[in-house]
Amino acid sequence: MKELVEVIAKALVDNPDDVKVNEIEGERSIILELKVAPDDMGKVIGKQGRIAKAIRTVVKAAATKEEKRVVVEILQ
Q1: DSSP state of 34
Q2: Which residues contact 55 (CB under 8 A, 6 or more apart)?
Q3: 31: three-class secondary structure by DSSP
Q4: Does residue 20 contact residue 9 with C-beta atoms inside 8 Å?
Q5: 46: helix, strand or coil
Q6: pLDDT value of position 71
Q7: I need a labelling partner for 2 at 20 to 30 A (CA). Which of 36, 48, 53, 70 fits?
Q8: CA distance linking residue 3 with residue 74, whole number of Å
Q9: 3-state secondary structure at position 75
Q10: What is the pTM of this model?
């Protein structure tokens, strides 16, 4: 999951070196914290949050195979 979010985020931003994904794993859920450069926040979130929602949808679909709940948080 971590690598999936990283690949998607790096494809969207201008500064791919500043993309960092922190994975916090629990028993039934995984929290992925996505950090990008302040200039790239808009590109990752998108208009009205559409890109962020799309990222969450793709990750959620991939997580159903592992039967875990995945939460993607975009941090500054």
Answers
A1: E
A2: 5, 8, 9, 44, 72
A3: strand
A4: no
A5: coil
A6: 93
A7: 48
A8: 15
A9: strand
A10: 0.89
